[in-house]
Amino acid sequence: MITLTEFNVKTNGTTDWINITGETQKAVSASGVREGICVVFIPHTTAAVTINENADPDVPRDVDLALSLISPDRREFRHSEGNSAAHAKTSLVGPSLTLIISGGRLLLGTWQGVWFNEYDGPRVRKVNVRVMGE
Ligand code: ZN
Q: 24-50 in b/e burial notation, b at 16+ Cβ within 10 A?
């Protein structure tokens, strides 16, 4: 079985972390796949996806602060759109995840969640979920 699901994420503010674990699991459940692979792909150049703690809301906040320290806005940037810091953060975090499906569920650690990262919002963004398996 191979399925492709697309859903939208509405972000708030320039930077935003949205927990998409539930929507991703919903795509897996709808596919009927019990054992396989799930790929989450973000088709944007100023938004990314990552796995991190889903319990303490200070964790996404702190990771976002760390990324801003690694990639601050710089006067030397030349890209005319003025969002090069967002493009750089997107490259640091990455556009996709590969997840294991076991027993019809995403195999995630107790504290892990799948997070959509906005760096140039607010916008309505797309998330693609490919599920493969049996
Ligand atoms: Zn740009």
A: bbebbeebebeebebebbbebebbbbb
Ligand 1 centroid to residue 20 C-alpha, Å: 24
The band of 45, judged by pLDDT with boundaries at 50, 70 and 90, is very high
Q: What is the pLDDT of residue 117?
A: 98
> How many angstroms separate the alpha carbon of residue 52 from the centre of ligand 1?
26
Euclidean distance between CA atoms 20 and 128, whole angstroms: 11
Amino acid at 17: W
pTM across the whole model = 0.96
Say if residues 124 and 61 touch (Cβ distance below 8 Å): no
> What is the Å distance from ligand 1's center to 84 Cα?
6
